[in-house]
Design brief:
alpha/beta, five-stranded mixed β-sheet, 8 helices
């Protein structure tokens, strides 16, 4: 199964993104092997920096480093996938400004992200990497339950509480892509801790 063949944006309604940088992972996956879905923010402007691009893309570099920080010895996104982790973004088109509008997050969560998560029936944990992913997941759960799953508040204050939705345990964490990841040591430590805990739950 290739996710980009199974879920698509039908109408591109958003005005604050670059649709020329639209990305849904174009990789071959056995859906039943996925236990963890890691949701980042948005694809990069440069397609060669995307997680699954050829060579050594920047998004892959920082994601691989996050797993190494968590004591998983990986060297590529293929290795991460073989751990049972599917990495994607909450927004499927690149940003055109620092902030992403609530309307765009909602559009993408309805049209693609919710359906994308459902491609993987054995998933047990969802890692929300940053505020955009947290907002997207809250929109998904609010549509189904009437309530958001992750409460308001600073991530470092809420990340160790337990949040459950359907069969998933959901982890709010920090963004593992971008240049800031390389310099914010405290956030890197927390990301590593969240990845470890997500794996512990996925193996139960």
């Amino acid at each position: 199964m290739r996710p980009n063949k199974s879920v698509k944006c039908p109408d591109f309604p958003c005005s604050d993104v670059n649709r020329n940088c639209y990305r849904v992972p174009d990789i071959e996956i056995e859906p039943e092997t996925i236990r963890i879905v890691m949701i980042s923010e948005a694809p990069p402007e440069n397609s060669s920096d995307y997680f699954y691009a050829k060579g050594n893309p920047f998004y892959a570099q920082t994601t691989v480093q996050a797993f190494n920080d968590a004591s998983f010895k990986v060297s590529s996104m293929k290795d991460v996938l073989e751990l049972g982790v599917y990495v994607t973004t909450a927004i499927k088109c690149a940003k055109t400004a620092y902030a992403i509008s609530p309307e765009t997050i909602d559009n993408c969560s309805i049209r693609i992200l919710e359906k994308e998560i459902n491609l993987f029936p054995k998933t047990k944990t969802i890692l929300l990497m940053g505020d955009t992913a947290i907002k997207a997941m809250n929109l998904i759960t609010r549509r189904k339950t009437g309530k958001k799953i992750i409460p308001s508040g600073s991530t470092y204050k809420i990340r160790k509480d337990k949040y459950f939705y359907d069969q998933f345990r959901v982890f709010p964490s920090y963004l593992q892509t971008g240049k800031s990841y390389l310099i914010e040591k405290s956030k890197r430590k927390m990301i590593a801790e969240d990845i470890k805990t997500a794996f512990e739950h996925a193996q139960t």
